[in-house]
């Protein structure tokens, strides 16, 4: 027979779920994501309480990083974490409780080129415009990919599928001709700009502000920020 003891400490919307015996403890916080959603691990089941929902998620799934709980129907849905490909919780699914850690973003993985390491997720479904892609990345506590070195640029090039246009976190929306990285707001350095950005095309320069990889080009093109494209999100490297 297996005994599982659990203690619940509730403070506002955050509490610690500890399972002794299994030697697990996890802090869940109620969140309401808008531009991403929880990856569902199975269909919902009925759990008598939110605490039992948390406990069974942790016991049944080593990759439990959150769950949804409907406090009226008592439906409980386990989750492996946040993804830009997933819809936010429906009313039927209830409230989302999330445990934030390095492992709570299942689409991200660490990729390397020489001594450059990045924690990155690539999305090509659905294709999103620049603002929506930025919002999707922010929803996962990340930002669009910043290719601010040759190593990172070629790494991006090798990670993406050639059939899509793929945008990066580089735009000149604020000041025409001054391309800045999305994470820092720093302007791209001129050496790198010459190496990775294709400029001087006969285009409407005022309206085209966002950098993207084109299937048949080896440098970033600049196009309308309203274009729906594939994109990458980047987080600090963690383990
Ligand atoms: C239980 O977890 C704690 C902290 O995570 C760790 O220090 C301890 O060694 C673990 N005990 C066992 C028996 O695994
Ligand atoms: C029950 O669920 C509703 C709807 O999500 C939420 O507004 C309310 O705060 C919940 N009540 C408790 C006690 O968690
Ligand atoms: C621009 O960036 C490249 C690559 O990161 C670096 O080697 C170079 O020194 C930088 N140049 C300037 C002027 O900052
Ligand atoms: C790594 O970066 C270098 C540029 O510094 C580039 O030539 C090479 O193709 C890159 N390799 C991969 C696998 O991205
Ligand atoms: C590259 O793509 C552009 C736009 O889709 C097209 O006009 C051009 O012919 C293509 N060039 C090559 C070499 O395939
Ligand atoms: C992207 O689409 C949204 C609607 O989904 C719109 O509000 C936004 O202005 C668009 N962004 C750009 C840069 O066109």
Describe what is shown at a glance.
The chain is an alpha+beta fold.
Could you explain the architecture of this structure?
This protein is of the alpha+beta class and 239 residues long. 16% of the residues lie in helices and 38% in strands. The chain has helices at residues 50-60, 130-139, 150-159, 190-196, and strands spanning 5-11, 14-20, 24-31, 37-40, 45-46, 66-69, 75-83, 95-98, 109-113, 116-128, 143-144, 166-171, 180-181, 208-213, 220-224, 229-235. Strands 1, 2, 3, 4, 5, 6, 7 and 8 form an eight-stranded antiparallel beta sheet that branches. Strands 9, 10, 11, 12, 13, 14, 15 and 16 form an eight-stranded mixed beta sheet that branches. The longest helix is centred in the N-terminal third of the chain and has 11 residues, at 50-60. The chain is elongated, with a radius of gyration of 21 Å. The model is unreliable at 1-12 (pLDDT under 50). The protein binds 2-acetamido-2-deoxy-beta-D-glucopyranose (6 copies). The site of one 2-acetamido-2-deoxy-beta-D-glucopyranose has 7 residues, from helix 3. This is C-type lectin domain-containing protein.
Helix content bin: 10-25%
How many helices? The count is 4
* Outline: elongated
- Bound chemical compounds: 2-acetamido-2-deoxy-beta-D-glucopyranose
Overall mean confidence score, pLDDT: 90
Q: How far is the first residue's CA from the last residue's CA?
A: 34 Å
Strand content: 35-45%
C-alpha Rg, in Å?
21 Å
Largest sheet: 8 strands, antiparallel
Number of beta strands? 16
Low-confidence stretches: 1-12
Find the structural class using helix and strand composition. Answer: alpha+beta
Which H/E pattern describes the elements? EEEEEHEEEEEHEHEEHEEE
